[in-house]
Design brief:
The complex is a heterodimer of chains A (282) and B (688). Chain A is 27% helix and 22% strand. Chain A is of the alpha/beta class and 282 residues long. In chain A, helix 5 links the parallel strand 7 and strand 8. The chains are: A alpha/beta (282), B alpha/beta (688). At the A-B interface, strand 1 and helix 3 of A face helix 24, helix 27, helix 28 and helix 30 of B.
Chain lengths: 282, 688
Amino acid sequence: MAKGTVFDIQQMTLADGPGVRTTVFLKGCPLRCQWCHNPEGLSPRPQLMVSPNGCAACGACRRVCPSPERCVACGACVKVCPANLRKICGVEYTPEELAELLLADREYLTALGGGVTFSGGEPTLQSEFLLETLALLKPMHRAVETCGYCPEETFLKVIEAVDYVIMDIKHTDSAVHRRYTGVDNAPILSNLELLKKSGKPFRIRVPLIPGVNDSRENLETTARLVAGAPMLEKVELLSYHQTAGAKYSMVGMTYQPEFDVSLPPEQWPECFREKGICCDVL
Amino acid sequence: MTDYISKLKERFIIDKAHHQYRHKPSDPFDLARELSAQEAGDIERSVRRLAWVLKRERPAVYPDEKIVLLRTEPTIPEIYTPEEKEALARQYYIHEQGKVCNVTADYEKLLLVGFEEMTRRLQERRQTLEPNQQDQRRQLLAMEQTLELLTDLAERYRQEALRVGNLSAAARLEWVPAKAPRTFLEALQMLRLIHYGLWASGQYHNTLGRFDQYMYPFLQRDLANGLSEEEALEQLEEFFLCCNKDSDLYPGMQQGDNGQSLVLGGRDERGENQYNLLSSLCLTACRELQLIDPKINLRVHGGTPLSVYEEGTRLTKMGLGFPQYVNDDVVIPCLKGWGYEEKDAVNYSVAACWELIVPGAGMDIPNLDALAFPQMVLEALDDFEAAEDFETGLQAVRKAIFRRAEEMTAGRKPVYMEPAPLLSLMMEGCLEEGRDISLGGRYNNYGFHGTGLATAVDSLAAIEQYVFREKRFTISQLRRMLRDNFEGEEELAHLLRYDGPKLGNDDERADRLAVLLLDWFADSLEGRRNERGGIYRPGTGSAMYYLWHGREMGATPDGRRAGEPLPCNYSPSLFVRTRGPISVVKSFTRPHLDRVANGGPLTIELHNSVFRTPDSIGKVALFVRSFFQLGGHQMQINSVHRETLLAAKAHPEQYKNLIVRVWGWSGYFVELDEAYQDHIIQRAEMTF
């Protein structure tokens, strides 16, 4: 039985699929998008996350630390912080444990037209755990939010196991994609073709990053890639926001994007709308 | 919003230009000394107070306004000297200021007949009295004089309107209040006068009741005669603006705590939905005006369509903190269980905050006192120490609740309130019996708040978990920790505060205790009668007690430190980060709320960006409805605004549950870097 690592479970997510949903964030991602706003989801391993606000510098955390040279995410400091500013980000679950937790809200979520969405990180990175959990959640509406970067076989199994797919297309040019996300987009684009043919209802998301992928040309190409797919519900353009870097310091990382964060991204919903594709700008 | 309304908003709200007409405040006891020297009776004193205020009023009319009347006299004088008040307090229980407050008048009683006809009825009734019915005669005369005084003020306003060339306002005042209004606008003008008259009579927390029901017939008539909805909306918005003209002069605990609440929707005895076009216009008016008054309560029930919740949610989005929702399907059975007749129960309205009262029939005092649940837990610690198991100790909490119920109800001095002749005209039976409403109405029930439920529940759950189940420490060790305010026990304090079972997490270990505590609160008051023959109603509200009780209270077993505030009303503890809104709704609908519906809402805070698309508005509406479908009684959703965010920045430990939508993601506000917090605060300034 595969165990999975989850870095957050959020209730009442309104933008992650139909109805009112609970979103499970699985830890670990094969991509390194420079605009990533969930840096705690990148590493597959549990790690310490520290919120700076409200810290009285009492020193309790330092006094109990057994490994001051290098954090081993033991959690000793978490238990002594009087303001509860520390947590171990990344909790291990068995599929049964996670499913039990989620099934407790089955009736509620179903009544509100929703269900469960698996996001990340990249949920397909823990595909064995994901598939086992999805199988246990059969009575609920299940969705996955994926970057599409995974082996074909995994991708097919996952989309087969869900009712709804949300997939990112970050850039259509492989060189630019590699530069800003660290990986080639070839597997993503070929998985997109599988998704289009799968018969699953899906939604495409494009994070609009200023100067990276917000050109009319890139969005035109994106629109051509998805145009005519019968099960495509809509395309969502998510404008980059300056708050994207908010959590980096909390996991001991530095936010260093190579694009100009102060520029407002261009928005070209008409690229999609002209092709008869519903497009929301969020 | 039309240009005309924008102009009025600019004048009365932004510039407060009308404040120039206000006089200097007077000594509030001047009149009382005069009345005392003359040994005047209390009914006479009440009439003379109104006469004193109205005599000082200097009508001020703007040439363009359609609904006139401004308060120019800031002082509402006392009718008793301080010495007389002390003497009264020795003999009687004086609630708050000793004035009738926090009830809902049946405005139709005057709106449907006009002052002339009402005066005629009063005179007629006076003539049928027996010679020995002096009290009744005095009372009826006082009511009559009150109408005379207000009629005179209206006439002076008419003349002033003529003087400044506002002919249409003058024409309306030629008809109302003497005769029953013919149009919506006349009805609004008359309601404005009556409402003003209540404040000028010393009444406060003057609620507006089921406005969309008693005003609708006037609107319907106009619409049938060709008034457009846009015109109606403009008239309504002007009336709502009027509610904000003098509100800074109204008494209350805080600015804005003035009780100008208004109730919309609901069902009737047959279960028919009573939400109408006027209800909808009221929501639109609030959305456009964005003012603190009137405060909207929306009655919902199983037959309320989702579109009504969506309209409500669009108003919530404005960040005003209303509508507050109330569930007919819980409240009506609860009121009936307490002895309210069916026709009254279905006609309930909301008092100043969230207390449920019956217009025209209820002289209830729903905020007589409060029971602090965490105190009940602290008082049971001795018994927990001696107890072999948790359940035995728990019985001591029940005993403490019953003890406190006895303390709050036994040996009460009778209530005394100053007479309220104008209000009496709009309360059932007062005219017929020649009786003042201060002496009691058809319902004379008293209510108690129950504060800090979550703190108490979390404390008990921690005792069960760590003392009895895991045996991590004993009760005497716990008591030492509480006494020392957790000094030197950081790790255990953290465990209790953050890791224990908490109410709001959909956790049976905590939720079952909430069910018990509220049941016991209801049990403890059952069968008790007050000196007016009424019952005692338990509730889930806190009013300001969540600060007062919190300040006085030592540390509690849930890890709350001494002096920390309790959660407001019916909500999770302030420092508990619950799993989310769904868990909160599930936990908080578990108790038997149909036994404790004195009033007190669950409050949920959502960031205003949650409301940004029509799609998400629809989903929030579904969420709101779910609370009521699961049996919730009252709920208030906040679209969080700048002030809250600033407070959260200064006291992050009290705002752990504050969710902010940052980009395509949600996060906890308190976890963000300062720069991002400031950014969101800035953005909140732009959000309306």
